[in-house]
Amino acid sequence: MPPHLIMLAPAPVIRLPDGQLRLDVKYVEGMRAHRDAWPGTLSGVIWEGATTVPFGATYAPDALGFDLTVLPEGATPQVEAADLIAAPADMADVLSLADGPVPVVFVVEYTLGTRLRIVALEQGRSILRKAWSALWNIRMERRRRAAFRKAAGVQCNGYPAFDAYAALNRQTLLYLDGRMRGAMMATQADLAAKATYAGPLRIVHSGRLEPMKGAQDLMPIATALRRAGVAFTLDIFGTGSLEAELAQQAADFGGAVRLHRPVDFDTALVPWMRAEADLFLSCHRQADPSCTYLESLGCGVPVLGYANDMWRRLSVASGGGWSVPMADHGAMTERIVTLSAQRGALHAAAKAGLAFAQDHAFEREFAGRMAHFAQCLAGQRAVR
Question: Which class for 26: exposed (0-12), middle (13-18), buried (19 or more C-beta within 10 A)?
Fold first, then answer.
């Protein structure tokens, strides 16, 4: 009988009055890729509780292409019928599945250090509440590490998670998450067109406009570039709590800084970046894997970012960009000034980053993950 894989996820969902679901596009695409690669049946479980789905679309449940169970917030999933469970270790409530009868492969992105930094950056919380959250995360980390030791396997999205947890389980896989399929990536013609461009440096940023994502650093860097006399444009794609503030500040730049609402990734953002962007500006301070890095490289756009644990490693491994000390606006500005005058370095990084992204295309990473799931299931059946 074909094996049944149940995938639990913290993906946001909103039930609409007409019975349709508002879902994260990346989640749906990922589930469809899992379905196509898994040699059996596959179903998903997610929980209500979200109030918005920033990068979402509306789907009819019967048109998803996979079975999806939407549970009330905090409800316990029914997984007894599964042969294997894929569970997000960043959800504390699912760690107890390691003690159940069904083999579990945990998928993890955040390290303890990243979780503690997120707590420290949370807005509107007292020091006492932050201290309580930090202690809770430290206690939960003990449970997480114990669950990994009991699990059928562990999949680590990004270098920091792999470094932190690989020693806990023999069946540990490193992968790099992203939505860029091979056919979507930049071409040599795209790179050649950019190599002949000599106008203002075209800088781009996309993502949630939140303090945790470093969006508050974008305008100070733009201001410093203007003072340095750099000819540039900065296009910002996204929405969030800092959107109004950024829009007000952007108005002072006479059109050089432009804010855009989130656009469709496949049909709008990717073609635009392939044709219109020279450099991706990342002010992200967390060490989470952030698929934006790999996706930018796949568009032929090198990345300049803060030296968090993920981008520092990825910038070296890919050759697709540069890292500067954390929260150092001056270092970020100096690097952009240099790149604006020395476009050859941009083109070399674009070429290297694209090659790296092609080696880690969506199809390859997902095929590797599905093979790992099958290997973990086979290993569990062999010892029973």
Answer: middle
Structural domains present in the chain: 4-180+362-383 (3.40.50.2000), 184-359 (3.40.50.2000)
The vertex-42 CA angle with 37 and 48, nearest 5°, equals: 125
Q: Which residues pair with 8 in a beta bridge?
A: 45
Q: How many CB atoms lie within 10 A of CB 382?
A: 7
| Residue given tokens 């894929």 in the structure block | 86
Tokens, residue 12: 């946001």
C-beta of residue 61 within 8 angstroms of C-beta of residue 19: yes
pLDDT tens, the chain, 384 aa long: 789 999 999 999 999 999 999 999 889 988 998 898 899 999 999 999 999 897 789 999 999 999 999 999 989 899 999 999 999 998 998 999 999 999 999 999 999 999 998 888 777 788 999 999 999 999 999 999 999 999 999 999 999 999 999 999 999 999 999 889 999 999 999 999 999 999 999 999 999 899 888 999 999 999 999 999 999 999 999 999 999 999 999 999 999 999 998 898 899 999 999 999 999 999 998 888 889 999 999 999 999 999 999 999 999 999 999 999 999 999 999 999 999 999 999 999 999 999 999 999 998 998 899 999 999 999 886 655
Phi, psi for 42 (deg, rounded to 5): -140, 140
Enumerate the β-bridge partners of residue 24: 56
Q: Is 155 helix (H, G, I), strand (E, B) or coil?
A: strand
pTM over 0.85: yes
Asked if 356 and 317 touch (Cβ cutoff 8 Å), the reply is yes
Instruction: Yes or no: say if 274 and 300 are a contact pair by the CB < 8 Å rule.
Output: yes
Give the whole-angstrom CA distance, residue 272 versus residue 100. Answer: 47
Contact 377, 152 (CB under 8 A): yes
